[in-house]
Specification:
The protein folds into three domains: about 80 residues, Arc Repressor Mutant, subunit A, CATH 1.10.10; about 120 residues, Aspartate Aminotransferase, domain 1; about 230 residues, Type I PLP-dependent aspartate aminotransferase-like (Major domain) (Aspartate Aminotransferase, domain 2), CATH 3.40.640.10. Strand 9, helix 12 and strand 10 form a beta-alpha-beta unit. About 45% of the residues lie in helices and about 15% in strands. The chain has 18 helices and 17 strands. The radius of gyration is 23 Å and the shape is globular. Helix 11 packs parallel to helix 12 and helix 16 runs parallel beside helix 18.
Length: about 450
C-alpha cells in the first residue's frame, strides 16, 4: 500500500475534527481505526515517514509523533534500516453467547458493537473541576449534584417534570439495569421482555436466575394484547420494554401505540422498566414515564450511544419510593460512578439539545450510506432505515444467520447474530451492523460482507 492509497483510506475527517485533540493524536487515532479493522493487517510495511507526511499534508514531526503514539500502543513496530510495519496482535476466539463477548470479541472491522468508534466527541475534565468536587473524596452513589440537576432540567424541558432527587447517576445503562434487577428481583422471579431485546439484559437475567417471558412485537411496536395476556398469566416482577428506540431493530413506537401500552400497564399496575438507552438518537417523543399515571415506571438512560461507550455514565429516573429502594441496594454493591467521567458527561448535559441534534444528523447520514451500499452489494438482504439507534437490522434469506456470522468474521468483519438478542436464544435470520463508523471503513466492510456472502456454499 503506497502513501496516497493509505491517505485515501483514512479520509479527511481526522484533519477537520478540531475538537478531537492535537493533530498527531487525531492522526494516530485515524490510523488505529485501519489497524483495528484489519485494513492494515499484521506485517504490512508502512511507507516511509517522509512520503506519509506528504500524502497526509502534515509536517514530518507531526507524522513522527503520530507513529510514536502507535508504537507506544504496540500497534506498529520499527527498526532502523527496516522501516515501520504493523505489529502482530492476538486473534479472537470463537464468540460465546454472552452479549458483551459476542460484540467485543473478534478481529477485523467491528460492526457488531453498536457504539461510537472512539472518544472524539468528548473533551477531558480540567483539574480544577475535580478539586471542586463535593464531597472531596469523590465517593457519591447518587452522582454529582450538578450533573443530576442538568439532567433534571433537560427532562423537564422535554415535558417530563423531574427533580435532581429523582435521578441516580450510574456507570452506564448495563450497570443501571443490573441495579434495577438487584433491587427488585429475587431468584425464580419472572420478567417480561420483548422477543428481541438488549442481549445484555438477557445476560443479567441469567446471572440473577430470573426467567425471561417474551412477548412479540408487530410493525407498530409491542403487541399490547399479547403483553396483557402475559402479565395476567405470569404475574411478572418487572416488565422491561424499549418503546422509544428498540434494540436491536432500531424501530420506534408511534404515539397511539404508546398510549395503548401505557393504558394496559396502568390497568395491570405493573412495575415497568423502560430502557431509553437509544432514545436520544431519535427525535424526542412522549416518554412512557409521562404517559403512565398508575404504573410505576423506572427509566434507564445512557451517554454510551450518543457520546462514547467508554465514558460509562448513565442514569436512572424513578419516583421517590423506587429510587430510595435503588439507593439502598446500590449502597451494598458499589460506591458510585467515576467523577472524571461525570464531569465529561456534565459538559454534554449542559448543552444537550444542540449536541444531540448534531449527533442525530450524523447518524442519519451514516445509516443511509451503509443502507445504500448494502442495497447495491447485497440486494437479497432486507434492510430498512432505522427510526433511531446506531445499527441496521438486516434479515438474510436464510433460516439462521449463524453460519454467515462465522463467514463474515473469517472475511474480517464482526457482526452480531440476531440470536444474541432473542429471549430464547434460538435460530435467527438477522444480523445487526453498526453504521457509526467512517465512510471508508463502512465501504470496505461492505466489500468483505459481500465476499463472505458469495462464498457461502448454500444460501
Amino acid at each position: 500500500m503506497d502513501a496516497d492509497e493509505l491517505a485515501r483510506l483514512v479520509g479527511e475527517g481526522w484533519a477537520t475534527d478540531r475538537d478531537g485533540g492535537a493533530m498527531p493524536d487525531r492522526l494516530a487515532l485515524a490510523l488505529r481505526h485501519l489497524i483495528d479493522g484489519d485494513l492494515l493487517a499484521p506485517g504490512v510495511r508502512l511507507p516511509p515517514e517522509r512520503a506519509l507526511a506528504a500524502a497526509f499534508h502534515v509536517s514530518r514531526p507531526t507524522m513522527t509523533a503520530a507513529l510514536d503514539e502507535l508504537r507506544q500502543q504496540g500497534l506498529v513496530a520499527s527498526r532502523q534500516g527496516s522501516g515501520t510495519w504493523v505489529g502482530e496482535r492476538p486473534r479472537g476466539a470463537v464468540r460465546p453467547r454472552a452479549m458483551s463477548e459476542a460484540v467485543l470479541v473478534g478481529h477485523g472491522i467491528n460492526l457488531a458493537a453498536a457504539a461510537p468508534p472512539d472518544s472524539s466527541l468528548l473533551t477531558g475534565p480540567r483539574d480544577s473541576e475535580l478539586l471542586a468536587t463535593v464531597p472531596a473524596h469523590g465517593l457519591g452513589p447518587e452522582g454529582l449534584p450538578e450533573l443530576r440537576a442538568a439532567l433534571a432540567a433537560w427532562h423537564t424541558a422535554h415535558r417530563l417534570p423531574t427533580s435532581a432527587d429523582d435521578l441516580m447517576v450510574t456507570s452506564g445503562a448495563h450497570h443501571a439495569l443490573g441495579l434495577v434487577l438487584g433491587a427488585f428481583c429475587a431468584p425464580g422471579d419472572r420478567v417480561i421482555v420483548e422477543e428481541h431485546t438488549y442481549g445484555g439484559l438477557l445476560d443479567l437475567l441469567a446471572v440473577a436466575h430470573v426467567s425471561a417471558v417474551a412477548v412479540p412485537r408487530d410493525a407498530r411496536g409491542v403487541d399490547v394484547a399479547a403483553l396483557t395476556r402475559a402479565i395476567d398469566r405470569t404475574r411478572p416482577r418487572l416488565v422491561c420494554l424499549m418503546p422509544s428506540v428498540h434494540a436491536p431493530t432500531g424501530a420506534g413506537t408511534g404515539v397511539l401505540r404508546r398510549r395503548e401500552l401505557a393504558a394496559a400497564l396502568d390497568r395491570a399496575g405493573a412495575l415497568v422498566v423502560v430502557d431509553e438507552t437509544l432514545a436520544e438518537t431519535a427525535d424526542p417523543v412522549p416518554s412512557l414515564a409521562a404517559l403512565c399515571s398508575v404504573a410505576e415506571v423506572v427509566s434507564v438512560h445512557s451517554f454510551s450511544k450518543t457520546a462514547w461507550a467508554g465514558l460509562r455514565v448513565g442514569w436512572i429516573r424513578a419516583r421517590p419510593q423506587a429510587r430510595e429502594r435503588l439507593a439502598r441496594h446500590r449502597a451494598r454493591v458499589d460506591l458510585g460512578t467515576s467523577v472524571p467521567g461525570q464531569h465529561a458527561a456534565l459538559r454534554i448535559a449542559t448543552g444537550m439539545d444542540a449536541f444531540l441534534a448534531r449527533r442525530r444528523e450524523d447518524l442519519r447520514a451514516k445509516a443511509i450510506h451503509l443502507r445504500d451500499a448494502l442495497g447495491v452489494a447485497l440486494p437479497e438482504w432486507r434492510i430498512a432505515l432505522p427510526y433511531g439507534g446506531l445499527s441496521l437490522w438486516a434479515r438474510l434469506p436464510v433460516e439462521d444467520a449463524a453460519g454467515y456470522v462465522r463467514a463474515a468474521e473469517a472475511a474480517g468483519v464482526v457482526v452480531m447474530h440476531g440470536a444474541v438478542a432473542r429471549a430464547d436464544r434460538g435460530p435467527d435470520p438477522h444480523v445487526r451492523l453498526c453504521f457509526d463508523r467512517g465512510p471508508q471503513i463502512l465501504d470496505e466492510a461492505v466489500v468483505r460482507l459481500a465476499r463472505a456472502w458469495d462464498a457461502m456454499p448454500a444460501r
